[in-house]
Amino acid sequence: MVKVIKLRKGLDIHLKGAAEPDLQKALQGGVYALTPESFCGLVPKVVVREGDHVRAGDALFVNKLCPDVRFASPVSGKVIAVERGERRKVLSVQVKADEKQEFVDFGGVNVSQLDGEQVKQKLLESGLFGFINQLPYAVSTTPDTQPKAIFVSALRDKPLAADFEFELKDNEKDFQTGLTALSKMAKTYLGIGAKQTAQALTDAADVEVNVFDGPCPAGNVGVQVNHIAPVNKGEVVWTVDPMVVVFIGRLFNNGHVDLRRKVALAGSEVLNPAYYDVMVGQRVGDLTDENVKDGHKVRIINGNVLTGKPCKADDFLGAFTSEVTVIPEGDDADEMLGWIMPRLNQFSVNRSYFSWLFGKKREYAPDARIKGGERHIIMSGEYDRVLPMDIFGEYLIKAIITGDIDRQEQLGIYEVSPEDFALAEFVDSSKLELQAIVRKGLDILRKENA
Question: How many other CB atoms are there within 10 angstroms of residue 383's CB atom?
Answer without folding.
Answer: 23
